[in-house]
Amino acid sequence: MPSMQVRNVLARINDDQIEALLGERHLFTDHLIYVLIGALISKQPDGEQGPLSADSDNLFYTPSSFVNAYLDDTGWQIVKLRRELGGLPRFPGARIFTPA
After folding, report:
1. What is the value of pTM for the model shown?
2. Per the CB 3.0–4.6 Å rule, which of 1, 51, 57, 94 could disulfide with 9?
């Protein structure tokens, strides 16, 4: 698994604003993002404590999309939003993952 940095969202902010704060090297490759998220989920399949927040959004950015992994009543969900549709507002408690 690649080295990652994890940051917490402290205030309501949009994806575009988050990316502006992260700088140039914050993108994961499109073809590996699901492998990466799957590996993280496998370490906490039932929402155990770990790198992923079980209580909020877990945000990953790729050249083509905004990706969110979150836990709901049915299990882990992964939602990919194409960039051309625009980003979403994010709330305190969300975690942002970037390559280290």
Report:
1. 0.93
2. 94
In angstroms, rounded to a whole number, what is the distance separating the alpha carbons of residues 44 and 62? 23
Q: Which residue has the tokens 């051309």?
A: 84
Distance, CA of 35 to CA of 92 (rounded, Å): 26
Report strand pairing: 13-14 vs 89-90: antiparallel
Question: Can you read off the two tokens belonging to residue 56?
Answer: 């909020």
- Over residues 16-64, the pLDDT tens digits come to 999 999 988 999 999 999 999 999 999 999 999 999 999 999 999 999 9
CA atoms within 13 A on the CB side of 99: 14
Instruction: Find residue 61's DSSP bridge partners.
Output: 66
Distance, CA of 59 to CA of 69 (rounded, Å): 7
